[in-house]
Description:
The longest helix has 35 residues, at 359-393. The protein has helices at 18-32, 44-53, 62-75, 95-107, 118-132, 150-165, 169-172, 192-199, 220-232, 255-264, 320-327, 345-348, 359-393, 412-415, 421-431, 459-486, and strands at residues 143-147, 180-186, 207-210, 235-243, 268-272, 297-301, 313-317, 397-398, 406-410, 437-439, 447-451. It is of the alpha/beta class and 487 residues long. β10 (437-439) and β11 (447-451) form a beta hairpin. Helix content is 43%, strand content 11%. The relative contact order is 0.14. α4 packs antiparallel against α13 (359-393). The protein binds pyridoxal-5'-phosphate.
Amino acid sequence: MTGSRAGTGRLDSSFPTAWQVVATEIEALARDSRRRPVVPVLSDDELRKQTEHLLDSSPIPLPNLTLETARLLREGSVHVTSPRYFGLFNPSTLEAGIVGDALVAAFNPQLAVRSHAPAAATMERVALEYFESHLGFGQEEIHSTFTTGGAEANLSAVLTALLHRYPNYGDHGMRGLERRPAVYLSGESHHSFTKIARMLGLGTQALKQIQTTSEFTIDPEHLRTRIQADLREGWDPLLVVGTAGTTGAGVIDPLEEIGEIASSLDIWFHVDAAWGGTALLSPKLRGGLRGIHRADSVTWDAHKWLSVPMGAGMFFCRHPEAVQRAFAVKTSYMPPSTDQVISDGYHTTAQWSRRAIGVKVFLSLAHLGVEGYRHLVERQAQMGDVLRELLERKGWAVVNSTPLPLVCFTHPDLQTGGSTTRELLAEIYRRGIVWISDVSVGGREPALRACITSFRTSHEDLQILVEELEAARASLAGRQRATAAER
Ligand SMILES: *Cc1c(COP(=O)(O)O)cnc(C)c1O
């Protein structure tokens, strides 16, 4: 159908309905993605031309349009759901999550107010309480909500911390504060905090970078001395971020020590566990996040390791009254609350009209079960261990240390300057069999980065990854020899 007008004529009865097309495509995606190129095969020009073509003339029957749209997505995406995608924290999506998202699109439950969508709100509540029970927070009242993602959850944390510390901030903003609030994090923390500092008027100078150890985790000693120095200079230490599973290297900051320092100095402790939070579901891995129970607030994304479609983040906070101060508003047009104000989303989040984000999470939890999720997490962690072993056996050097399935690595050949990490990556993408990325951890030389983001990734996929790395390396070395011979 490529290039031609996507069948605007009458359909005969043997032609599938749009829903049959969707079902076939989704099943094929789960079944065949391993055999498809992991990178886009259509150029940007082709994509533009073929996309515009769909708007050119008469309306297109939905089944044909569905086929065309699926083809464009298939031929114009990095396939993050492929078991051979080892990229950023984008998961393969669980079938139950896809079903949940489709139903939500159809019913369109409005979660700004609970009374409009009590069923969806209840599913969200039950799912949130399940995840909350893994944080070890104790018996107090906890605020928890689904967010669009980790960036919104982190924003909610900083704003809530501001209103917890300065109840007047809501009326007077920064101008009402005597001292400038400071936020502590490391160079490995997520860059959403840069935007947050701009959005909230803190300014990026308020972000105080703490040195990291040789393991790329926050150095608690430096945190302590930096806070003392800032106090002397008139800053008001407001919040410290501990990351559980950094985006670059997947390492976990020393949450226990950071929590200890934060509580002794009355500083808000936020744990950004956007990716790593899911390790809490495994008794084997949970210990790595020791100290998370000390957090004042936690970010935990569902659209990362919980493997539901984007976007679904979660925000947990043990100061519900400060959350209210941050987000509650009075209007004459919103339906009145049926119970406490706290359960209406528009009073407790930055969002207003709100998709039922948590339904797909609830369905995934109900379908996989607690044991199913535990198995998913432990299997991916185990695949991470297998990858480390396979790489080292072939002479690659792993440069990060984490129990989570994210491996940063390099090769002596890349260190001695023959070819660069970027060249190697370009060769990997050109081959199109696997997808990995590169990262500079702790400001060092770039390393390759492979994360096990798919619950479908198998031992064989990892062998293919290492074979691809070896093949790319050989091809670069061959090219170099050829260039040297020409000289
Ligand atoms: C991905 C990530 C975020 C941002 O989350 P989004 O869901 O992409 O908004 C924040 N923190 C960490 C550690 C992350 O890995």
